[in-house]
């Protein structure tokens, strides 16, 4: 560990939230030499991991995630954090991007070759079966524009409008751009900012074959967060679960402590609030909610993700993952094969539907039925198989919606309140809401906190 920067050794840091932003902030502080006994994390839930958690079904003996998460090869800070915590084996990257795509009775695939830079996409796009030849050429023509997106100019328009302005048909948008973009941004092309979409495609798809590889978790998400926290605790960081912060204590524009549920006040000279944007607003003293930095957060809205975990009575799926255009676009994972559960191999699938507003009003039986027939369309073996269980997991507050113009609402780590820093996937990371964005935000908040001269007098 490096020596702590001058002036911060004796100042305590309180971190609110043990999601990946909070874990990353704590780890970054330690890595910069902050003594562990000066870091306390308060977490409302009984477990760490925030929006990436797991739960057990005692009856089935299976562990579910709140949603199947994936990574891309470009998620280097998350990978680095896992390595430093000794849990890098928690996911594996495909050697090369390879996702079979089912659409209207036919299969195509999103794929990549080991070619320099954006050229890695060329062979795959030229043969992508779900586009007509002219649509493929147009897709290729637009790809170079992803390399240098004018982020400022494009934040106000939707990705869908930008794609149409650049010669993409609605058919190509649905079968290519929206299929990938919705999974990455958790919003459909017409709902999300062109700037963030282009930047996300640049980083995760166009930049190179290494960055575009799909990362598939081989362990339940909750285990990773639990191991990360155990590691931090082992180093001496104090973590208090089931401890919600109800209010930030601020005096003369300086944070002085946090009020905990039950009324106790924990004095704090510096606080990193690594909670969702609306949770941050709720814990601000009322006088601060109209402050320019925080008032903007009211314009951020949530986008839901629906997951279904389907257990068949026999194997129905051979590959690790595929995408389907059924139900407006969904990704299907061979969960048993990823987690290494031979008894459920090919039988236990998880289905992820991002930006799933359309399905909000449907009852559980109707949803389960639609998902089963969508799976049966793509998987012949599923047609005769019996479904033993179908567990639906709704996450209405899965991620913020990166709507056009939303980048100006995303906060920087340093706030107008002295000693208060913010982290979370919704902050101004330049990334879509993701594990990678959360980890980067934690690093940025720790950096900002260490750059902040203490003690905070006058
Ligand atoms: C269904 C689903 C699928 C997803 N798929 C992917 C994916 O494939 N790839 C990907 O990269 N990302 C994915 N994400 C997004 C990813 O999970 C999030 O971006 C990331 O986990 C956010 O981390 P965070 O630390 O910023 O916030 P959170 O995980 O929300 O952590 C905030 C923490 O603060 C705690 N907290 C809140 N209020 C208080 C309080 N008052 N006092 C104390 N503690 C408090 C919460 O309990 C929580 O633990 C998905 C999310 C969902 C829900």
Task: Summarize this entry quickly.
By secondary structure, the chain is an alpha/beta fold.
CATH domain class name of the largest domain: Alpha Beta
Q: What fold name stands as the CATH topology of the largest domain? A: FAD/NAD(P)-binding domain
Distance between the termini: 31 Å
Tell me the total number of β-strands. Answer: 20
Word description of this protein:
With 458 residues, the chain is α/β, with parallel strands linked by helices. It is built from 16 helices and 20 strands. α2 (76-84) packs across α16 (435-451). Bound molecules: flavin-adenine dinucleotide.
Please tag this protein with its features.
binds flavin-adenine dinucleotide; alpha/beta; 16 helices; 3 domains; globular; 458 residues; Guanine Nucleotide Dissociation Inhibitor, domain 1; Polyamine Oxidase, Chain A, domain 2
What order do the helices and strands come in, and which of them pair?
Blueprint: E1 13-16, H1 20-31, E2 39-42, E3 54-57, E4 62-65, E5 70-72, H2 76-84, E6 91-93, E7 98-103, E8 106-111, H3 122-126, H4 133-142, H5 151-154, H6 159-165, H7 170-185, H8 194-206, H9 209-212, E9 214-217, H10 221-235, E10 238-240, E11 245-251, E12 254-260, E13 265-267, E14 270-273, H11 277-283, H12 292-295, E15 302-312, E16 321-324, E17 330-334, H13 335-339, E18 348-354, H14 364-378, H15 380-384, E19 387-400, E20 420-422, H16 435-451
Parallel strand pairs: 1-2, 1-14, 2-10, 7-16, 14-20
Antiparallel strand pairs: 3-4, 5-9, 6-9, 7-8, 11-12, 12-13, 15-18, 15-19, 16-17, 17-18
Flavin-adenine dinucleotide binds next to α1, α11, β15, β19 and α16.
